[in-house]
Amino acid sequence: MERSPTATLLLSCPDRPGIVAALSGYVAEHQGNVVHLDQHVDQEINAFFMRMEWELEGFSLSREAIQESLLPLFERFSMAWSLHFSDVKPRAAIFVTKEKHCLYDLLSRHESGELKIDIPLIISNREDLEPAAERFGVPFHHFPISEATKPEVEAQEIALLRRERVDTVILARYMQILSADFVEAFPRQVINIHHSFLPAFPGARPYHSAHRRGVKIIGATSHYVTEDLDEGPIIEQDVVHVTHRDSVHDFIRKGKDLEKVVLARAVWRHTQRRVLVHQNRTVVFG
Amino acid sequence: MERSPTATLLLSCPDRPGIVAALSGYVAEHQGNVVHLDQHVDQEINAFFMRMEWELEGFSLSREAIQESLLPLFERFSMAWSLHFSDVKPRAAIFVTKEKHCLYDLLSRHESGELKIDIPLIISNREDLEPAAERFGVPFHHFPISEATKPEVEAQEIALLRRERVDTVILARYMQILSADFVEAFPRQVINIHHSFLPAFPGARPYHSAHRRGVKIIGATSHYVTEDLDEGPIIEQDVVHVTHRDSVHDFIRKGKDLEKVVLARAVWRHTQRRVLVHQNRTVVFG
Amino acid sequence: MERSPTATLLLSCPDRPGIVAALSGYVAEHQGNVVHLDQHVDQEINAFFMRMEWELEGFSLSREAIQESLLPLFERFSMAWSLHFSDVKPRAAIFVTKEKHCLYDLLSRHESGELKIDIPLIISNREDLEPAAERFGVPFHHFPISEATKPEVEAQEIALLRRERVDTVILARYMQILSADFVEAFPRQVINIHHSFLPAFPGARPYHSAHRRGVKIIGATSHYVTEDLDEGPIIEQDVVHVTHRDSVHDFIRKGKDLEKVVLARAVWRHTQRRVLVHQNRTVVFG
Amino acid sequence: MERSPTATLLLSCPDRPGIVAALSGYVAEHQGNVVHLDQHVDQEINAFFMRMEWELEGFSLSREAIQESLLPLFERFSMAWSLHFSDVKPRAAIFVTKEKHCLYDLLSRHESGELKIDIPLIISNREDLEPAAERFGVPFHHFPISEATKPEVEAQEIALLRRERVDTVILARYMQILSADFVEAFPRQVINIHHSFLPAFPGARPYHSAHRRGVKIIGATSHYVTEDLDEGPIIEQDVVHVTHRDSVHDFIRKGKDLEKVVLARAVWRHTQRRVLVHQNRTVVFG
Known about the structure:
homotetramer; alpha/beta; Alpha-Beta Plaits; 2 domains; 8 helices; about 30% strand
């Protein structure tokens, strides 16, 4: 079961002939073995996307040398890229408010080893979930926040996240809107769960709106946070059927199961380096 | 397999004690046998809904006498009601424009006996699907329509539908907006299929909008037509997952399968007298 | 939101005219208000099933008098029945072995108030999950068991469950087969989660079998335990799509999410008194 | 929208370093542009699978030269392979018996251009569906068959299929078991639809078995036909939820919708050259 460490390269660039040949040739040339290669060409916008993962064992270049040796290729094809090593775990902070179902779900997936990440801290604008954090032994930081104090408090949060070397922020039903400054500090690294099948029912109280509208399905959407509320690139969505027998409280109960699983799938994919963003849409490699 | 004819009563009223007892008592008193009874109480709005179906064989009242004998009950409980007999088939007109997948689907369900309805005619604002109608032997009526001629043409259509004793209108990808007058002529009897999971992507070209937004699910919605475009009571919705590999043409291809099945389910339930409308929401009895 | 207590009557009997009238008449006669009535007639086997729930507030009979006053009705129609009060919580014991995802899931649903039950104890044939039980403050009982000691150990377990007045046993990935004696001690009160879409892949290691067979969906099944392993009445099933990219470990990871939610839904329905069993099939009221 | 013709290469071989580099290098070397490349490594069995599609426009080799120029590569890596051109349509024969829902569905998808195949003929062991075939203008061949005549009749069918240059056989609810000889004549080219979520309910009358078992989901499975009945490699499966209210006739009605869409998806993928078979499992490229 235990695999040797791998390198994963995520990249996007304008499409043109020879990209796959150049990159797979690079790995072959240094005695590497590709264990996963998935590419996608969006012909409408002439864009090329690729995820390539290869084993470090037997590879003729050191980790340090890999990035440098790839730079000429990146430049030749005008590539946007990121390079990751499978044994360097993402470090994620979880932001919460009052609801704890997503928090518990993430922590138990972490504890079981399903989510291969470090969770150095939990941040909340309220104190309600401190006992839940303690139960799993994760440090809890309480940052009360108001419109007036938001710039200052967010600056403190960002400083703390930097100190903890956090690279991923998970909003697990965090009921505060992040400022544009915060979002810019972690571009495409802040994952939110919204409790509707966006773009239906953006904003607050989507289950109430959905019940009023009389829909026959409810959903949840996980997306990267951008400056535009509920408008960021969608990573994952799922739905469940409802009927006239379901009250708004049933919607909320059933929806929680969706929120947990949709957020967990998005976090899993993000931390497995399977998600690329391009023009407000995601490419999610299988 | 062949069952004896049944009577079906659909009703809604303010909730209060004794309604079920009164109605089931009525059937028992006349030696009837209930084969389906489903009720629903919406406590939030204090409303009661019921569908009761009983066998006519052995029932001590004639069909003609049933309605009259129930009137005092309807009045006592301030009931909105409708009464149907299972061997009196609904008569449905299908409206189409260019797309034929829903039309073919409905006609083949009709031919196979799954949809127990009569389809006396097909109406279209274009001539494209006349051969398809002919193939199934259903009379095809071409009513070209423009904004200027709409009132007059719709009046002709309504007259034709009346002559043909049509009680249900199915918009099978009919690309014309019906006027309020038309809708009023067939209140809660006009069923539309919209190619998105409403309320997301109302209006035209929803697959294109969905693709641009980068959603991970697409859907279809069947609803009763009201004066407010795409805002009528929803009867049925379903979705299918999509990925970044799906172009807008794949969305359209996958969506067609949804449209067919979602519309067919709505028509089946409507013609089985399983749908009640209350305050822009439906109660769909199982 | 807080509703007054209700009485719920679950019953089955041979179908014949007048049952609904008799039961709804009974409630009306004593000034009761029915908040939920769902009946089902299985014409193939001539069986009648009903769930009726009515408010105790304003009802003219005391709780003690209800059962006695209904006995003549039960006898007249040869009814199998059970009577429950909404403020008398079911008492459930959770049986586990090593896997903790279902246990955590149930405990956090219990803690959040979603599952309105008491969980007086957790029983395991291993010690692995004692810390998990402690974390949620639920007493943990370790009963090591072998084929030789099974009769004796099970007798001790049954005695403990009786002392704790447990009425529902939840097998949350309990990897021991219960004896017929144990099952008989809690007839139709033992709920199991099996990690396949039964009847496919009964027995052990279903994910491995499913992977070998190359299925494109995997599933989970919650059912009442009977003497026949994996053959009991099914309460709930659900599935998720898989592809050739999913290894057996991915099947297991994805399957865990199914197991949690399918078991939780079954427990919720069981403890809400929505499930009836008849001839190895369930009627699950909506 | 109209794309230039492409070549598609499907292949499998033992995994080893350099395969992608060699193949993508080949295309790049001849000025080709890859529009789709998807590979999969099954580490458990050390197998490599790939689908590569590239534009013929601008490619420096003629169609005739492509296969020959690839042979050394195929040999070097011990590849099993097939090569296809997008403008050479698959030729499919549809086999039917009495049920026509799948036949109609395939023919209307063909007529609308969704299925880019030729359908030169329909074969049946009964005459029932001749009018349906005529309606769509497809030649209908009636081959009555019995256990005694099977070898001879199948030989005639094979001869006819050869004359019509048929490469794909679609069993659209064909209620006859094909002999091993027939299956060998079209290896991995015979697609069947089975009306259950295999491996549950193999054999005849699966809806009846499913109803008796009391399942909460029913399904359909499309697979390649092998000598072992209902045991061939699965291409696609899907399910729909059912409840106690659904009679076996409702199972059949709901199941038909599954059968249509599951078979159509399998045929679409097969004819788009997206399916590889290895050790009784399929790799279905996205």
